[in-house]
């Protein structure tokens, strides 16, 4: 790694351990071999949860997880280089189907930008999941592992947005948030796998099965988020 990438990695490690005090559970649900899709909620004004999740999983697992990211992540060369080096990919409408076919792990944020773009008043209320990941699960037979992330909403709360700056930089929104991350307590929880239904030759039935899988994953992640929020006495405990 370059010095800059090493520094980014070191800062992420310090933030996860000493500042955000990230507590993980359910890692044993991630299979040691074979494909699986990790589907996580997405929140916080800058989408910082993606980098924290990537860091935590790289330390906890003996195999890589390839996280899918929006093209915005790849606009800054230094950030893009760091992301690619650590398994982050984008610009793939199949959401990692080739990787899953090879037996790899793929991580997605099915809320997309809607998750990180919601106002703080709507914190921890998941936006609808885009069903693409579920369609990929059905086609590849990969189980879906629900992942709950609690803490990102308070670390970078989205208090508003500035439309002029969003248009200037070509962003879906430009958030009004804190200049530095706040020291919220984080929980990252991996739930039990949800098996993918068999791929039906009928496109209509296959699509219906994918939507049912998508809805089940959404409900499961929302329930996990609700439960983990209740584990904190205060957001900054």
UniProtKB/TrEMBL annotation:
Keywords: Acyltransferase, Transferase. SUPFAM superfamilies: Glycerol-3-phosphate (1)-acyltransferase (SSF69593). It comes from the Bacteria. Coiled coil: none annotated. Pfam families: Acyltransferase. One of its GO terms (molecular function) is acyltransferase activity. This is 1-acyl-sn-glycerol-3-phosphate acyltransferase. The lineage of its organism: Bacteria, Bacillati, Actinomycetota, Actinomycetes, Kitasatosporales.
